[in-house]
Every structure is written in C-alpha cells, then in structure tokens.
Amino acid sequence: MNNKTSLALGVDVGGTNTKVGLVSSKGKILHFQSFPTNALGSNPDPFLTNLKNVLQTFIKSTDKTILGIGASFHGYIDDENTGLVVCENTPALRGFNFMEFFSRSFKFPVKILNDVSAHSLAEYTFGSGRNESRFMTVAVGTGIGAGVIINGKPLRFLGGTIGDAGRIILKPGGPKSVYAVSGSAEALCGTKNIERLAEQKYGEQKPAFDIIHSARKGNDPIAIEIIQEIGMYLGWTIASLSTIFLPSKIALTGGTTEAGQVLLDACRRQFDELVGEYYQKMTFLSNGKFKPATIVIGEYRGESGMVGSVIDFFNKSKSIDKVKSII
C-alpha cells in the first residue's frame, strides 16, 4: 500500500457549469470552485480565461507535486483525445484543442475524456461502484448520458462513450432535445424539461436549480411532482439501457441528483415496473452470473466527473491501491 498522497487537477466542463477541483489520490476534493460555462457563442476565449484563472489559483494553493490536469467534457471526444467534436450545449468549445491549451499554459501532463466515462471511473474507483463487475453510471443534469464498466474496463464505442444514451426515444412526439430528437431521454430528463414543467405548473419561469432543491427539502408539492416525473423518465431510460448491459449496480450522478430521495424513489419504481421481473429471470437463468440491479445515488453526485478525470494519473503513479487497468 502506498501511503503517500498525490494530487491532480480535475476539470468537469458541463453544458451549464464548469467545476474545477484539486483532487487527492484518496479521492478527496481538497479545493473546489464552480463557474458558469457560458460557451454558447463562437468565441471560447472568455471561458478559457475563467478556467485558466481558477487553475492558476489552485496551483498556487499547494506546494505538493501536481501529477497532471484531467478534463472531462460533455459530448463526443475526438479520436486524438484533444477536445470536442460534438457539443451542442457549448458550441464555442467545438474543435478547440484543449490538450494543447492545458499543456502550453501549465506544463503538466494532460488527460481528456468524456464526462460520463469520468463519472463512471470516479464511482467505480472511490465510490458506489467498488468491487462491482458490471457497473453503470447515469449522469443527469443539463443532458443525460451513461457510462459502463465491465470487469474493470470502461466500454467506449463512440467519442469516448458507450454511445448517445440521451437520444433514446421515450415519448414519440414529445419535446425536442438540442439535437432535435422528439421525446428523447435528454429532452425528458434534462434541466430544460424541469423548467418547462415548472412554467406549466407554477405559471411562471423558475430555474431548475430551485426546483431540484425545493424537492429535496420536501416542502413544495409542485417541485416534488416535477422531480417525480423526471425520475420516472430516468427510470425508463435506465431500464432501456440495462437490458443491453445488465449492470448489477447503477449509480446516478450529475446535478439533478441533488434532488435526493424524491428522484431516486421515482426512478426505482419505474425501473422495477419495467424490468424488475426481467432481472429476476436473468438471475435465475444464468445461475446467479447476472444479479438483480441496485440503483443508488453516486457518492460524488455532481462532482464525479471532476474526480474521474484524474484517476489515470494516480493509476500511473501507483498512488492508489484499487485501480485496475481501466484506461
């Protein structure tokens, strides 16, 4: 066992907010800051300036060696792992070479990966997915995506992901996502639908953040009703994915999970209704090789992408005990 604690800088760039943290090899977040991504235009410079300033502050905050900078992004990563090729929620960042930007600005090793892949790595290594042979993470916030780890190895088929889970069609003719798919998982589970439902039910506009936190507090019946509907669609999405990957443990991550038990209970109910019996049958037919699925809220919730982005540095430096050859 290596008792020496190493550090790395983790960045998680989402469609709404960007999170930056100084992360230890024990999975602890030592310093944290979040700021609005604001990359809807064509100019990435304002975002890059904010990001650079935060990273410089964190670097100055420690005299310990920093192993590198890991950055996770929503959307598809290019084949060279330098940046984004598809990112409709942050068009200003499309095609920008983040590998070069980080390397030139800070002189550290750099790792670029998809955000949901990072979510899965964080939970698998330090959180709710430890010791699971078939593990899936579903991140829900501005959009929705899924990552799967089988026997310690992430599945990556398209742009650093298992594929675009957010485009699973749940409700033909339903609201459209930013990619113009009607009734998709993202259109029904994402924060825009929370705000759309809020405007319908309250008669005025309310930010998703307020709805999520009101539902968690449990003192606003309308907010609870909205999050229960989101949870229902989330359970439906997970059920559709689970018949493909058969995970035994499913962790929910991303900003919407701050709604807590209200979201989780609704998600579990829909999942059990749709595929509960299927899982029981698969467990019986496989003589226990496939196990009933458990759905939990991930231990890192909205910070998992930031933590997962740096795990490769700790793995290479052998500064954590429990990481298989997973990247």
Write the layout of secondary structure elements.
Blueprint: E1 7-13, E2 17-24, E3 29-36, H1 45-60, E4 66-73, E5 76-77, E6 84-86, H2 98-106, E7 110-114, H3 115-126, E8 134-140, E9 144-150, E10 153-154, H4 185-189, H5 191-202, H6 208-217, H7 221-245, E11 249-253, H8 261-285, E12 294-297, H9 304-308, H10 311-317
Parallel strand pairs: 1-4, 4-7, 8-11, 11-12
Antiparallel strand pairs: 1-2, 2-3, 5-6, 8-9, 9-10
* Low-pLDDT segments, ≥5 res: 321-327
Please report the first level of CATH classification, the CATH class of the largest domain.
Alpha Beta
Roughly what fraction of the amino acids lie in strands? 15-25%
CATH topology of the largest domain: Nucleotidyltransferase, domain 5
SSE ordering? EEEHEEEHEHEEEHHHHEHEHH
Alpha carbon gyration radius: 19 Å
Amino- and carboxy-terminal Cα gap: 21 Å
User: Which range best describes the helical content: under 10%, 10-25%, 25-40%, 40-55%, 55-70% or over 70%?
Assistant: 25-40%
CATH homology superfamily name of the largest domain: ATPase, nucleotide binding domain
Largest beta-sheet details: 5 strands, mixed
Model description:
This protein has about 325 residues and is of the alpha/beta class. It folds into 2 domains: about 5-120 and about 305-315, Nucleotidyltransferase, domain 5; about 130-300, Nucleotidyltransferase, domain 5, CATH 3.30.420.40. It is about 40% helix and about 20% strand. The protein has 10 helices and 12 strands. The protein has helices at about 45-60, 100-105, 115-125, 185-190, 190-200, 210-215, 220-245, 260-285, 305-310, 310-315, and strands at about 5-15, 15-25, 30-35, 65-75, 75, 85, 110-115, 135-140, 145-150, 155, 250-255, 295. The protein has a 5-stranded mixed beta sheet with strand order 3-2-1-4-7, with helices on both faces. Strand 8 and strand 9 (about 145-150) form a beta hairpin. Helix 6 crosses helix 7 (about 220-245). The longest helix is centred in the last third of the chain and has 25 residues, at about 220-245. The chain is globular, with a radius of gyration of 19 Å. About 50% of the residues are buried.
